[in-house]
Amino acid sequence: MEQPDVFYDGSEYIETASGNKVSRSCVLCGSRNIVLNGKCIVQSDCIVRGDLANINLGRLCVVGKRSVITPPFKKLLGGGAFYPLQIGDNVFVGEDTVISAVQVGSYVYIGNNCVIGQSCVLKDCCKIEDNTVLPPETVVPSFAIFAGSPGTMVGELPESTQDIMSEATRSFYQHFKKL
Amino acid sequence: MSEANKSRSQPKSSGNFKIAKDAVVCSEAQLVGDVTIGSRTVIHPTARILAEGGPIVIGDNNLIQEKVTIINSKPSNVESSNVRCMIIGNGNVFEVGAYSESMVVGDRNTFEAKSRVSRVTAISSHCVIGAGCSLDSAETIPPDTMICGRENRQFTMKSVHSSNQQQLDLLIKMLPNYHRLTKSVQPA
Predict the structure, then answer these.
(1) Do A29 and B178 touch (CB under 8 A)?
(2) Hey, are the CB atoms on B177 and A22 less than 8 Å from each other?
(3) Cα B186 off chain centre by
């Protein structure tokens, strides 16, 4: 049950003072607008578009390979705007996922190959299964499991999800070791 | 940090580009081959426009987001020497991760995230190819069609004209502040 060690090439990742580990192959646009709050892991070939709006990742987040995190665009009467994207703590994002949500809560699990549509809101402690497509402006309530295309609620998570996710992300970080 | 990445892993653009003066093509996008890009078209970083089997002509006011691949692929039978030009019309939106090999794309279509359109499909105007949908059949998708959901269900939409102009205008103002842009290749 113990998380196995995942080794990475020391030259491939940059480790910051607050323990963030970011792959050098990531495309981080507008990096001064991207805030990683500590002990985040951003794996290879991710794209984070801080040039469009601020992007804030909470502590102990894990972003899988080739994922795209981009702020949503909202059409407004006086001309549209890109909204800042706020991701909570202990969030696990799978590989090849596209996130255009306006807010992702804490303790959220997002699977592989998902599409989180524009301006979605994911509340704390929810789970998005692999290959889900969430249409724009979907609100995913706490403790919900969403799957399918279009994403619909398929199940509920137990109350211990906060502890499970917090332990899972912490353990992933501890076992993410330099070769 | 992305400066360090660029020198190490950025794929090189090569070829003959004709990019309109008011188009915004980020230098981190990869353009290969004979590519023509119309005015006020925005191409985000990590998009790939690959004109391998022939030229690609992209019209005006298009929005091509990250990880989009638009590829005019070399036909599998090497004997056929006809070079076909891929034509993409005006006002289209290619969302993140869309993949298009379609040789004829009309105007005001939306290719949502992670959609795939094969070489033999032709798209007319004002269609929406939903997120994650893939089109492999040799047909022309009629105008005002929406294709969505896991089973690729097809609907006919009422003609609602929503234009992307707001987003394009904002991007044309914002992107040059953060990215170097690719300009036309000047004739020698």
Answers:
(1) yes
(2) no
(3) 23
The reply to whether residue A51 touches residue B175, judged by beta carbons under 8 angstroms, is yes
- Tell me the three state secondary structure of residue A168: helix
Token pair of B183 as six digits: 């300009």
CA distance B168 to chain A (A): 10
Question: A20-57 burial string, b = 16+ CB within 10 Å, else e?
Answer: bbbbbbbbbbbbebbbbbbbbbbbbbbbbbbbbbbbbb
Q: Considering only alpha carbons, which residue of chain B is nearest residue A48?
A: B66
Number of CB pairs, chain A paired with chain B, less than 8 A apart:
91
CA-based nearest residue in chain B for residue A75: B166
Residue B96 contacts by C-beta under 8 Å, 6 or more apart in sequence? A68, A70, A98, A100, A115, B65, B66, B67, B68, B113, B114
Whole-angstrom CA distances from A3 to A60, A75, A163, B8, B137 are 15, 44, 16, 32, 44
Per-residue model confidence (pLDDT) at position B4: 40
Residue B37 token pair:
């890009």
Amino acid at B150: R
Where residue A160 falls among pLDDT bands split at 50, 70, 90? very high
Query: Which tokens is B34 given?
Result: 């004979």
pLDDT, tens digit, for every residue of B90-131?
Answer: 999 999 999 999 999 999 999 999 999 998 899 999 999 988
DSSP one-letter string for B98-142: -EE--SEE-SS-EE-TT-EE-TT-EE-SS-EE-TT-EE-SSSEEP
ipTM: 0.89
Q: What is the pTM for the complete model shown?
A: 0.89
